Please model this.
Amino acid sequence: MNKKDVIFSIFLVILISFTFWRFVNNFKKYSTTASVSIITQRKEYQNGESLQLKITNNSGKKVCFSTCYPYLLEKKDKTWETYKYVECDRDNIHNGCIENGKEKGFELTLPKSISGLHRLAVPVCNECKEGETFKEESRFNSNEFMVK
Model:
């Protein structure tokens, strides 16, 4: 190999490496930010205790929540089973939206009758108008937490 071929080969390897690096970084950027993150303050709670959580919206859209069921409890036995912990006595409309790139804190009191491994399921509607009837378009899950 002459000197020109070696320099050309090195240049080609650098170019391919740079292109691959850019592709991987762009893929990570778009795959990790296109979501709604739901994190509880702790990993363990007592039944009847107050649970605080933070919802971060990186979905690329405004997300809105239900006035009746802004979050559902799910318990893990063999699979995750969703259950409603209260009955709603009002219209189920959109409320409490979070713009893309923003976050919001929520608090709920855990029912006194539950125990075991749980997570929250948060149904959302994208780009919905507040006051309209809630129609679930997506559902995001929190981290798992234990209720004793």
Summary: The longest strand covers residues 116-126.
